[in-house]
Amino acid sequence: MAYINLLPWREAARKERQKQYLTILAATALFSFLLMFLINMFYNARIDGQLQRNSYLSNEIKVLDQRITEIRTLNDKKKSLQQRMSLIEQLQSSRNLGTQIMDEIAHVVPAGVYLTQFEKKGSSLLLVGKSESNNRLSNMLREAESSELLADPLLEFIEAGKDSSTLLSNFKMHLLVTGFEAVHGTAEAATPANRGAK
């Protein structure tokens, strides 16, 4: 006798296939979710690491900026101190300038030339006096030209004395002090810098 299966096997097979399909679909979705979650965690970790590195670099840059500012301040103070030291050295060297000028005038003025007036205005000297002869004044001009402290001698005039009993002639001469310009020119340039440094 033939065996006849009366159970709805096609429906059962279809439900089984549907169940397998849903299982595979759920497993694929779960695997995709886990994969996306892991990828997301990996990139978030990298982003956090990069943010930490950026924060560290920003802090280090701030520290370096502060140090650069301190270095610039120290450089400004150093320049100010150097200018002050230079000014003090120049003032020390020019402290005896008046004595040096008098000593140099004594060397420049030859015998037979007598000074009656001596004025100093800034870096210029005015000499007024009497001379026994023009040759002695010429010698005085040559001595002034060869001097290291004096320069640019200019004889303004020579005139015969009004008193006929004496043979002396009156003269007026201008000179420049070379050391005075160097000292006071630098001192004036250094003064505004010192004021700005304060």
From TrEMBL:
Keywords: Coiled coil, Membrane, Transmembrane, Transmembrane helix. This is Pilus assembly protein PilN. InterPro entries: Extracell_DNA_Util/SecSys_Comp, PilN. The chain crosses the membrane at residues 21-43. It comes from Rheinheimera salexigens. The keyword Membrane applies. It comes from the Bacteria. It holds the Pfam family PilN. One of its GO terms (biological process) is type IV pilus-dependent motility. Residues 64-91 form a coiled coil.
